[in-house]
């Protein structure tokens, strides 16, 4: 009689113990609904009891699937931006939850592009079934080229109707317009946009900033302040701007991180927020409500966006041709504006 604690090393051994064929046991372990639930549960219990672990490499060779998805952060424009950036962490957490619920592992890659092959090295590696990209950075043409030949690819970023790439993101132009309109409606006339419009999402937000000025018949400033996305560099640049004596009574920040850096710089110079200068951010990260004062911002539903990205990827893996998905922005009014 076999010991109930005997370690099982092969699928055939587990099948013999269960009194089933190897194909039935294999399908039971894979959760195949064609196998009765009672059988699936009995096989899983036997596998746990005897320490059996499926050979994932062998399964992948048989199925041609890796059950893994790459999540890439291309940092062509912000080489110093860490993975610990609050926006990245928030989106990554939601993506991980959505992928694991579908039975996929997440392979994270932070890339500083040095050539045009950085994306192909992942898509053609055989290590993953599909790719999710967070942000187009300054790599939109490389992404577009890949999107024309590699279907299981979904990007968080700006949506362009004339592009092939499948993208999820807010209506950034509308969000920028909403933030600016909120300040103009308060009678503020000397606004400045903090962010680098050379990059797709931020460029769309700046376009909304300009559109709101035009709609209200208010002259827009000649140039934005091209602030970096990392807190310390943003703070330093904003401080220099304020020390130069520029006239400003309202700030539209391209991100919440930039907005909070602005509030810090203003506070340290004795400039009151919102009495002297009102500040509006973009993202509505969890930290926004903990700022002092609490940050007025444009919310993009990052959780819904992550779910949409994974859903579109799964549909593309199944062979479906999908379009992009645009999330509606929402103005969240707190104490900073």
What does this molecule look like?
It is a single chain. The chain has 337 residues and is of the alpha/beta class. It has three domains: 11-54, no CATH class; 68-170 and 302-328, Response regulator (Rossmann fold), CATH 3.40.50; 172-299, 3-Layer(aba) Sandwich (Rossmann fold), CATH 3.40.50.2300. It is built from twelve helices and eleven strands. The chain has helices at residues 11-18, 22-29, 37-49, 56-63, 86-101, 120-123, 140-147, 172-184, 200-215, 231-243, 256-268, 302-317; strands spanning 68-74, 105-111, 130-134, 153-156, 166-170, 191-194, 250-253, 278-283, 296-299, 325-327, 330-332. A six-stranded parallel β-sheet has the order 2-1-3-4-5-10, covered by helices on one side. Helix 1 (11-18) packs across helix 2 (22-29), helix 5 packs across helix 12 (302-317) and helix 8 crosses helix 9 (200-215). The longest helix has 16 residues, at 86-101. The chain is elongated and about 80 Å long. 41% of the residues are buried. The mean pLDDT is 91.
Topology:
Blueprint: H1 11-18, H2 22-29, H3 37-49, H4 56-63, E1 68-74, H5 86-101, E2 105-111, H6 120-123, E3 130-134, H7 140-147, E4 153-156, E5 166-170, H8 172-184, E6 191-194, H9 200-215, H10 231-243, E7 250-253, H11 256-268, E8 278-283, E9 296-299, H12 302-317, E10 325-327, E11 330-332
Parallel strand pairs: 1-2, 1-3, 3-4, 4-5, 5-10, 6-7, 7-8, 8-9
Antiparallel strand pairs: 9-11
């Amino acid at each position: 009689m076999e010991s109930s604690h005997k370690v099982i090393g092969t699928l055939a051994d587990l099948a013999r113990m269960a009194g089933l064929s190897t194909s039935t046991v294999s399908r039971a372990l894979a959760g195949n609904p064609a196998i009765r639930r009672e059988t699936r549960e009995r096989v899983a219990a036997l596998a746990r009891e005897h320490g059996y672990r499926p050979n994932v490499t062998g399964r992948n060779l048989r199925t041609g699937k890796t059950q893994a998805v790459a999540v890439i952060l291309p940092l062509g424009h912000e080489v110093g931006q860490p993975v610990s950036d609050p926006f990245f962490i928030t989106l990554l957490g939601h993506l991980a939850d959505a992928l694991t619920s579908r039975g996929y592992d997440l392979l994270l890659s932070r890339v500083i592009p040095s050539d045009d092959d950085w994306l192909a090295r992942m898509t053609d590696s055989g290590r993953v079934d599909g790719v999710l990209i967070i942000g187009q950075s300054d790599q939109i043409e490389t992404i577009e080229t890949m999107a024309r030949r590699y279907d299981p690819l979904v990007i968080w970023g700006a949506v362009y109707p004339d592009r092939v790439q499948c993208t999820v993101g807010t209506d950034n132009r509308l969000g920028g317009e909403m933030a600016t309109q909120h300040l103009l409606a308060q009678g503020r006339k000397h606004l400045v946009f903090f962010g680098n419009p050379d990059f797709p999402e931020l460029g769309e937000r700046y376009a909304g900033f300009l559109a709101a000025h035009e709609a209200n018949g208010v002259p827009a400033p000649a140039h934005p302040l091209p602030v970096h996305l990392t807190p310390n560099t943003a703070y330093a640049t904003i401080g220099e701007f304020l020390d130069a004596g520029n006239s400003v009574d309202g700030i539209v920040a391209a991100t919440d991180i930039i907005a909070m850096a602005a509030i810090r710089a203003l506070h340290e110079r004795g400039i009151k927020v919102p009495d002297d200068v009102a500040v509006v951010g973009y993202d509505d990260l969890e930290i926004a409500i903990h700022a002092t004062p609490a940050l007025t911002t444009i919310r993009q539903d990052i959780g819904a966006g992550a779910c949409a990205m994974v859903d579109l990827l799964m549909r593309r893996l199944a062979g479906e041709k999908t379009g992009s998905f645009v999330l509606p922005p929402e103005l969240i009014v707190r104490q900073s504006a």
